[in-house]
């Protein structure tokens, strides 16, 4: 299979979130037939979902991979599981959340996988890291990440560190 550039959203808000997020970068880089291109800086963001959650640490990674979308999803879920991810309450607190944001120019809508990520365009904690990583990035529908970023609020998001 041809190698494709994919973007992975990274989030954590339990059990030393920055450590989980940072370790996820190494775990993603170690995936079979996958090369890490880079990652964004880290951001602290207010949680979405059930009240009373701690803030999240969010970022994004860019990879070149030969894994098919479903294979990549399974590999990312394996990383989440190794980090103690418990799949319970929707949008609840978690040790690690890895989402395929984009996979080349693919558009996929299935019961198990939606690419581009369905809420990518409305979430500042996704758009800020993507803009750090690939400021000229275009979505499959022709939307520019920087234009989408201009349409979301910066409320509740704080940059923590330079990117890598």
Would you mind describing this structure in some detail?
With 164 residues, the chain is of the alpha+beta class. It has a single domain, classed as 7,8-Dihydro-6-hydroxymethylpterin-pyrophosphokinase HPPK (Alpha-Beta Plaits). Helices cover 26% and strands 26% of the residues. The protein contains four helices and eight strands. The strands form two sheets. Strands 1, 2, 3, 4, 5 and 8 form a six-stranded antiparallel beta sheet that branches. It has a two-stranded antiparallel ribbon with strand order 6-7. It is globular, with a radius of gyration of 15 Å. 36% of the residues are buried. The model has no long low-confidence stretch (mean pLDDT 91).
Summary, kept brief:
By secondary structure, this protein is α+β, with helices and mostly antiparallel strands. The chain is built from 4 helices and 8 strands; from the N terminus they run βαβββαβββααβ.
Report the radius of gyration as a whole number of Å.
15 Å
- How many independent structural domains? 1
Shape: globular
Work out the number of β strands.
8
Assigned CATH architecture? 2-Layer Sandwich
Mean pLDDT: 91
């Amino acid at each position: 299979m041809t190698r494709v550039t994919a973007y992975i959203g990274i989030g954590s808000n339990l059990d030393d979130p920055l450590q989980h997020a940072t370790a996820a970068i190494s775990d993603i880089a170690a995936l079979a037939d996958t090369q890490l291109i880079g990652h964004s800086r880290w951001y602290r963001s207010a949680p979405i979902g059930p009240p009373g959650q701690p803030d999240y640490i969010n970022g994004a990674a860019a990879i070149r991979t030969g894994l098919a979308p479903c294979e990549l999803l399974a590999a990312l879920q394996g990383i989440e599981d190794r980090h103690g991810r418990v799949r319970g309450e929707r949008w609840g607190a978690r040790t690690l959340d890895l989402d395929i944001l984009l996979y080349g120019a693919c558009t996929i809508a299935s019961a198990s996988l939606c690419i581009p990520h369905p809420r990518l365009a409305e979430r500042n904690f996704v758009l800020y890291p993507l803009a750090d990583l690939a400021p000229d990035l275009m979505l499959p529908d022709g939307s520019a990440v920087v234009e989408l970023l201009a349409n979301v609020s910066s409320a509740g998001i704080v940059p923590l560190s330079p990117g890598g």
